[in-house]
Amino acid sequence: MTTFWSLFITVITLGTLVGCAALIIWCSKDLDGVADGEDMGHEYDGIRELNNPLPKWWSYMFWATIVFGAVYFVLYPGLGNWKGVFNWQSSAQDVANIEESRQLLANSDGIDQYARELASANAIFGETFRKLAYKPGSDELQDINEIAKNPEAIKVGQRLFIQNCAQCHGSDARGQSGFPNLTDDAWLYGGEPETIKATLVNGRVGNMPAWLDALGDDGVREVASYTLSLSGRKVNAQEAAKGKTRFVVCAACHGTDGKGNPAFGAPDLTDNVWLFGGSRKAVEDTIRYGRQGVMPAWKDILDEDKIQLLSAYVWQLSTPQNQ
């Protein structure tokens, strides 16, 4: 943190404490010269205002919170770059990448609370992950489809999913606009167990180019009509016919039949499953402006056993008949 921001935070924090203390002192004084319990000379809707002091318990409570706040900022960080007497920190604030974070965790001296909690969690649950993901008495991972048959492993995989994937795909894994539904059989890159694991390990980067400059507004509308017709939607037949001739620019990825290509992550346009929405406007916007989607790689975040369990959970979501 720069010196400016450190001073800024310190002044704001201490100023708030001092301001609260000044306000309590001001409210505790008799500034109108009226004795306690006497009429203040104010009336509203037949109600007279009396000069009643602040309740003692109320004043003492706020004084206690102010004192507590002052002591807290002396002992713990909270005033800019001041680390506090205890030199405590919730996490490493100067880590620039995952590798630095791992090295810091390996050499942690116990001050970093996150490092302590992570080490404690690994000590408690590490063996559980290993037992569920690896073959008994072996360093070889179990097949994903075998792990998917273990209810206990699926429960652990579900918790891993909620912790790491639900932010984008939803707690029920049904996705949202721009984030795939993982419970159906419409897979951009393929839904085989090892393909799902590869997606988790290495991530995916999808790129649908913008075609407005190449097609123009009329061309975008015509290609949208043809694209919608592939999934059985009612469209303007003349527009769809013209769009079919223009679809050649799309066929390189989606195929001449529009059924997509998992090698490119190009979706099937005939199944009426739309990642960014299936309305005419949404489809036209996709063609006009393009789409960019990123699935982060988890190989540097989750251990191999956790990825194996997570892969099994995701795979069984769309293949319950295999369980």
TrEMBL record:
Residues 152-231, 238-318 form the Cytochrome c domain. It holds the Pfam family FixP_N. The chain crosses the membrane at residues 7-26, 57-76. Its main location: membrane. One of its GO terms (molecular function) is iron ion binding. GO terms for cellular component: plasma membrane. Binds 2 heme C groups per subunit. It is found in: Cell inner membrane. GO terms for biological process: oxidative phosphorylation; proton transmembrane transport. Its cofactor is heme c. Keywords: Cell inner membrane, Cell membrane, Electron transport, Heme, Hydrogen ion transport, Ion transport, Iron, Membrane, Metal-binding, Oxidoreductase, Repeat, Respiratory chain, Transmembrane, Transmembrane helix, Transport. Heme c 1 binds at C165, C168, H169, M295. This is Cbb3-type cytochrome c oxidase subunit.
